[in-house]
Specification:
- The complex is a heterodimer of chains A (395) and B (385).
- With 395 residues, chain A is mainly α.
- Chain A is 68% helix and 0% strand.
- Chain A contains 14 helices and no strands.
- Chain B has 385 residues and is of the alpha+beta class.
- Chain B has a single domain (62-359, 366-384), classed as Cytochrome-c3 Hydrogenase, chain B.
- In chain B, strands 3-4-5 form a three-stranded antiparallel sheet. Chain B has a three-stranded antiparallel sheet with strand order 8-9-10.
- In chain B, a hairpin with a 5-residue loop joins strand 9 (327-335) and strand 10.
- The longest helix of chain B has 30 residues, at 107-136.
């Protein structure tokens, strides 16, 4: 980003003659504006996609009235929410209550600074990128806890406390899984991690060795828990805590929390893609850098959205765990597994510093077999279902 | 009805810190209290010390209404006693009046009643099973259950024109005969629905997370279940094989072959929430069996006996029992020889199930309370009437 800003401020550039700090501020504002719009679009459309996918799973139709196939439903919902009254409970801590949604928003907005969309397309390629994302997404918990506390509602407080315990606990397995990756790349930079992988699936970190394979699933599970997704959606648990920390919110502020939820879903997918699924890497099919960039972006977006779809699928299928089961899953299973996994990865790294083609081949074969088995189960269940279960997404 | 709520907070010193219990108000507008139940929860963090049920938010004086509207006129009101499965309430009132006046229902009328009641029981259990899933956090089973329930509602709508408050039965039989083609459509539904129960079990009942949430939670021993007067699936979940249809046969139930499923403790302890839940899943299959037999053996003839328009049963009192969807439902009617009942009392399963919640609550998590209420299949109007 700095190079980009410097380029603009060179003599002859569009920002020539502007003082350097002001130029940097302008460029940062531009990037923030672009990313904010991207986030709104992604989170909004994700809310519609999720409702449609969910409706299919539940043999319903889902929103299909606003725009073709209801694709503008999120705009209608957003406008409705913006126009609603912003209610602050009388006994609430007004300042914290009003600030909480923005803090939550900030935590997840910050994560986008380090997401590599394509070669060179990243807001800030920090040399501590992964660490930064792990740290900044944890800021969400401050907002949720603040919302829970300031609402002056016991249900909200319970939701906030649950959220704090959950997100902080699941940071550990997620962090350990990330460390396993970092072990093999030797860099924390997101672009560096993506560049260490290849375009073909067998050059992804997912299939590099068994330890990274395990780390992917640990990371994805922990990330779901950090993003408050089913089966770990305890902070809002609508059947237990009404709406958890968000119970007292209305209008735009409530909308911001939902925005964060759906936007976070995309962050989970994007980070997992960058770390394990080869990120934006595509074969060099064209010399045109713009075309190649678009292709890289599409590949990256497609992969990360596939993971988002998996999360939706999980949400449509599984019940919710209880709060003590959530904690025991984290501390008794995920943390030990990720620790052992990391140690194993260290041993593997010492034995094969350059990676082992045999192990890689074995992992790809194993992964392919797993995928074939899974797909055959899916096909079996679809075949068994009766014709009234609409299989066409646009029925 | 007021509940004396102990407002004095327990204060105790732990490591020099003064702690106190949190009093939580759960309901009457809580999303998962199945209507307007209210619990006053004393909690230590997420762990409950006590959950005190507070009932009466849906009291509509249905028993008193019967004293003013007469025997025939009360039939639509019985729908509102348990609006999730109104057929059995219809039948209870009709049977009570018939017992008072000594009326015999024609055999075809009894068969129609059985078909309607068992379809209604499937519909009610579908709501219960689906809502249990939703309370545990799985949204999908609920919509699948509602989808099937809609088909039953379609069938019952053909029968009586209503989808929720049926008002199908009359003193002396049923209001209408089965419409043409109903038997075939009902059989079609049963044939389609039976395999779906297995699918539902795969989706929800044997799901690892669901089992973890329900098994070993709120275990009720057989002795305790009897002592607290639990009935229906709640009692059978504790391993007591008791079903009014089998043990005190009424109507034509003695002519049908069906099992009475009980809790097995296969996933945890006998009498836990999972057992109570599973009894309902298994009961739906038995309902299918009964409907099939009833349709196959449907006799010809009238569906309603001759009953005078001004129905004046002789002096006396009667207590009849039907197996409602929520268990042994008792109808106690006293007649003074006039056209209006002198006194009516309805004994319902949800009311007694509410009484055991306080006993079970210490040590459970708040999330468990939701699961326990769901496993009891409490329907708020049936509690208060």
């Amino acid at each position: 980003m700095q190079q980009f800003a410097d380029g603009l401020m060179e003599p002859g550039g569009p920002l020539a003659g502007i003082s350097t700090p002001l130029g940097y501020v302008l460029v940062v504002a531009l990037f923030a504006f672009l990313i904010l719009n991207f986030i709104m679009l992604v989170a909004g459309v994700t809310s519609w996609v999720e409702r449609r996918v969910w409706a299919r799973i539940q043999s319903r139709i889902g929103p299909n009235r606003v725009g073709p196939q209801g694709v503008l439903q999120w705009l209608a919902d957003g406008i409705k929410n913006i126009m609603k009254e912003d209610i602050v409970p009388e006994q609430a801590d007004r300042f914290l209550f009003k600030a909480a949604p923005y803090l939550t928003m900030m935590g997840f907005f910050g994560a986008f600074a380090c997401i590599p969309f394509a070669d060179g397309v990243i807001a800030a390629d920090l040399n501590v990128g992964v660490l930064y994302i792990t740290a900044v997404t944890a800021l969400v918990v401050v907002g949720i806890l603040m919302a829970g506390w300031s609402s002056n509602n016991k249900w909200a407080l319970l939701g906030g406390i649950r959220s704090a315990a959950q997100i902080i606990s699941y940071e550990i397995p997620a962090g350990l899984a990330v460390i396993t990756v970092v072990l093999f790349t030797g860099t924390l930079s997101m672009q560096g991690i993506v560049e260490a992988q290849g375009a073909a699936p067998w050059k992804w970190f997912l299939f590099a060795n068994p330890f990274l394979f395990v780390a992917f699933f640990v990371f994805f599970t922990a990330a779901l828990a950090e993003g408050n997704r089913t089966p770990f959606d305890l902070p809002e648990a609508e059947s237990e805590l009404v709406a958890g920390a968000f119970t007292e919110y209305s209008g735009l502020r409530s909308l911001l929390f939902f925005l964060v939820e759906w936007g976070n879903l995309y962050v989970i997918g994007a980070v997992a893609t960058a770390l394990f699924l080869g990120g934006w890497r595509v074969p060099a099919v064209t010399d045109n850098p713009v075309l190649l960039g678009v292709l890289q972006f599409l590949v990256f977006f497609g992969k990360s959205y596939f993971l988002v779809f998996i999360a939706m699928w999980v949400r449509g299928t599984l019940p919710r765990v209880r709060v003590d089961q959530l904690m025991s899953l984290c501390w008794k299973y995920l943390v030990p597994i990720s620790f052992v996994n990391m140690l194993g990865a260290m041993v593997f790294f010492v034995l094969f510093p350059e990676g082992s083609p045999v192990v890689r081949f074995g992992m790809v074969a194993f992964g392919a077999a797993l995928l074939v088995y899974f797909l055959s189960r899916v096909v079996f269940h679809i075949r068994r279902a009766r014709p009234e279960f609409h299989l066409s997404p646009f029925a | 009805m007021t509940v004396a709520i102990d407002v004095a907070l327990e204060r105790e010193g732990v490591g020099g810190l003064e702690t106190e219990e949190m009093t939580l108000n759960m309901g009457p507008q809580h999303p998962s209290t199945h209507g307007v139940l209210r619990f006053v929860v004393k909690a230590d963090g997420e762990v409950m010390r006590r959950a005190i049920p507070d009932i009466g938010y849906l009291h509509r004086s249905i028993e008193k209404i019967s004293e003013k509207v007469g025997y025939h006129g009360f039939m639509p009101y019985t729908d509102r006693v348990d609006y999730v499965s109104a057929m059995q309430c219809n039948q209870g009132w009709a049977m009570a009046c018939e017992a008072l006046a000594g009326i015999t229902v024609p055999r075809r009328g009894e068969y129609c009643r059985v078909i309607a009641c068992e379809l209604g029981r499937i519909a009610s259990h579908l709501i219960s099973v689906g809502a249990t899933g939703m309370d545990i956090g799985a949204m999908t089973p609920f919509t699948h259950c509602i989808r099937e329930r809609e088909k039953i509602n379609d069938l019952l709508e053909e029968l009586c024109g209503a989808r929720l408050t049926f008002n199908y039965m009359r003193i002396g039989g049923c209001a209408w005969d089965l419409p043409p083609g109903f038997a075939a459509r009902a059989l079609d539904f049963i044939n389609r629905f039976e395999p779906l129960i297995d699918e539902l079990n795969e989706l929800l009942s044997f799901n690892k997370i669901f089992v973890e949430r329900m098994a070993n939670v709120a275990v009720i021993s057989a002795e305790k279940a009897i002592a607290y007067n639990l009935v229906g699936p709640n009692l059978r979940g504790s391993g007591v094989r008791y079903d009014v249809r089998r043990d005190v046969p009424y109507s034509v139930y003695s002519e049908f072959q069906f099992d009475v499923p009980i809790g097995t403790g296969e996933k945890g302890t006998l009498g836990d929430s999972w057992d109570r839940y599973m009894v309902r899943c298994r009961e739906m299959k038995e309902c299918c069996r009964i409907v099939r037999q009833a349709i196959e053996g449907l006799p010809a003839g009238p569906v309603i006996a001759k009953v005078p328009r001004t129905f004046k049963p002789p002096r006396g009192e009667v207590y009849v029992r039907v197996e409602g969807s929520r268990g042994d439902m008792g109808w106690y009617v006293v007649s003074d020889g006039s056209a209006f009942p002198y006194r009516t009392h309805i004994r319902t399963g949800s009311y007694t199930a509410m009484s055991i919640v306080e006993e079970l609550s210490p040590g459970l998590m708040i999330a468990d309370l939701v699961a326990v209420i769901a496993s009891f299949d409490i329907v708020a109007p049936e509690v208060d009437r």
